[in-house]
Amino acid sequence: MKVDTGFLESLRLGGEFDARLCMNCGTCTALCPLGLEILPRRLFRHALLGDRERVLGESEAIFSCLLCRLCEANCPAGVHIAENVRSLRVVLNGEARGLAEA
Amino acid sequence: MPVPIQSTLGMLGDNLRKRGSALPLSRRAAMAWTRGLDIPRGGETVLYTGQMWQMAPAINAMTHRLARFEGSRLSGLFGFARRMNRLVNLTPLLARSSAAERQAYTDRLRNIARLLKAAGIPFGYLYEDDLYAGGLAHDEGLDTVFVAHAKRIQAVLQRHGVKRVITVDPHTTNMLRSVIPKALPGFSVEVKSYLEVLAERAPPVRRSLDRSATMHDSCVYARYEGVLAEPRALLARGGVRLDETEMSGPLTFCCGGPAEMLFPSRSADVARRRVAQLKAANPEVITACPLCLANLSRVAEPDVRIRDISDYLVEAYAPAEA
Which of A91, B40, B211, B256 has the fewest CB atoms within 10 Å, i.e. is most exposed? Predict the structure, then answer.
């Protein structure tokens, strides 16, 4: 794994990414209407570790999240899961040439 | 293989940036619902549609057509289509809907205007300045496009001297009340959903409906904006008894709508699961969001009847249309 020490900072600039409270309990995964196994707990772990390549390789999962907040309403740690996912989208869009151009 | 994510989002973002709307909608079409209602232009309190009810049939049509590209080799053409779309608006080809469907959706705006009038609540409308609220750009992380569009909305509201906004759908409510003020600190307008405004006013009941149904709460009203008690209070006073699903209120289950354009099959699977949950409680289903209505209706069998909450409220609280 290649650690990118600036990745977390770029996520915070993209939105309000904060997954430090995530306990990796899996309640979110169990409740997800789409049954996305990667989202959000493992994805957040990769992000916190600075594994940029692994996170950006999950664009299909990141863009299919419904942002419905069913996970968030039941998260025992109070993680703002939907905003975290949105922050990942902002960074992914910045990676795609021309997508977010003004 | 999904519909190509970057090209599809790019196309919608290009549309919002260049044409002011994510999907094809002429200003004339967006305002057509007001015909004969004599709603004054502007004012301190305005009914803000954010074009969601007007756009829902186009979203529906686009989802249907994009589903054909899912897993198809033709999806490789999306990059080229995006480049072409910058020059000539191609989205009308993907998002063409029937006149009957457009009428059915915008009739809900007429319902809402009639309800507010019957309750004695004065309001104006911004007509050609009633802009889309930009939810798609924000949710998909197209922040540059979203912020530029939010500034256009701010400028329009300031120009008209708007102080209070009455919204008609959960997404516009969330954008104007919670998202845009955070992105643009100077944005200060009081924002309430028409359901909140009506519940506060508690207008007299003209006809008790005496029927039962179940309620599908939109995720955005339920978990983002806390609009849960108001629709229930209005329905209860109007004589509608609700058979609630296990997953209702703060635990409501998504209609699948947010994934509809990029992942049409997955979105339809979620919608089918939701319709099954609702049907088990009562085959008469009430929604309060144009996107939930479109997404659930698309997969529902004929034995499930899905209608918008304004269809019920207008019957209970508004005088018959002349």
Answer: B40
How far away is chain B from the Cα of A70, in angstroms, using its nearest Cα? 6
Helix (H) / strand (E) containing B167:
strand B164-167
Min Cα separation A36/chain B (Å)? 11
pLDDT band at B86 (very low <50, low <70, confident <90, very high): low
How is residue A21 annotated by DSSP?
A: T
pLDDT tens for chain A, 102 residues long, are 888 888 888 888 767 788 888 998 989 999 999 988 777 888 899 999 999 999 988 988 999 999 999 999 999 999 999 999 999 999 888 854 444 443
Kindly state whether B148 is in contact with chain A, defined as any CB-CB distance less than 8 angstroms. Answer: yes
B81, B84, B85, B88: CA torsion to nearest 10: -140
Q: How far apart are CA B86 and CA B82, in angstroms?
A: 7
Sorted by where each begins, the domain ranges of chain B are: 5-198, 205-317
| CB B156 within 8 Å of CB B208 | no
In the sheet that B240-242 helps form, which strands lie side by side, from edge to edge?
B240-242, B211-215, B284-287, B305-308
B313, B142, B134: which is closest to B233 by C-alpha?
B313
Asked whether the predicted pLDDT for residue B169 surpasses 50, the reply is: yes
Q: What is the ipTM of this complex?
A: 0.90
Q: What percent of chain B has pLDDT over 90?
A: 70
> Given a cut of 90, is residue B192 above it in pLDDT?
yes
Give A87's contacts in chain B (Cβ within 8 Å): 141
DSSP-assigned states of every residue in B141-159: T-HHHHHHHHHHHHHHHHH
pLDDT, average across residues B263-281 = 95
CB A102 to CB B259 under 8 A? no
* Partner-chain residue, chosen from A64, A86, A96, that has the shortest CB–CB distance to B259: A64
DSSP H helices in B125-241: 135-139, 143-159, 170-174, 180-183, 194-201, 219, 229-237
Four-way CATH pick for B205-317: 3.40.50, 2.60.40, 3.90.1720, 3.30.420: 3.40.50
Q: Are strands B211-215 and B190-193 parallel, antiparallel or unpaired?
A: unpaired
Contacts of B256 in chain A (CB under 8 A): 33, 66
3-state secondary structure of B286: strand
| A24: alpha, beta or left? (left if phi > 0; alpha if psi -120 to 50) | left
